[in-house]
Amino acid sequence: MVVGAFPIAKLLYLGVRQMSKPVANRIKAGARRSEFFKTYVCLPPAQIYHWIEMRTKMRIMGFRGSSIKPLNEDAAAELGAELLGEAIIFIIGGGCMVLEYSRQAANSRRKEEEQNETIISLQTQIGELALTTETLDAQLREINRLLLSFPAPTKK
6-38 pLDDT, tens per residue? Predict the structure, then answer.
């Protein structure tokens, strides 16, 4: 019974992705508590997201030129923290995908190099066999020439 290699790298990637959710939640909680983080990291993206979302909804409904009121600070901080958490999960997932791709590319490069080495080895062996065949052919011709140079036996 042949057992394949245990995909430890995939298990590690899955573990990292699962751990990214609690890490993101902890960062979100820290963002809500820290005034600096809230003011400079959470609020601006949340206000921009709110403005784009509301502008898109208004245009879809046919309203043009309506002014959009900014979110209050608590709602913007909550939305910004959620956006930050989702961005962290997305970045970690993307990083795992990039690592998996590079691992697969390295494996395929290694297999291709092994195949190239095998092909080169086989070509070398074919060359050696061709040389051996030529040598044996020359020896056979020499033996035939020597046999033909002997006088033919006479019948009595």
Answer: 567 677 767 777 787 787 778 777 877 888 888
Is there a contact between 81 and 28 (Cβ–Cβ < 8 Å)?
Answer: yes
pTM of the model as a whole: 0.63
Contact 100, 10 (CB under 8 A): yes
Q: pLDDT tens digits for 72-111? A: 988 898 898 888 888 888 888 888 888 888 988 999 999 9
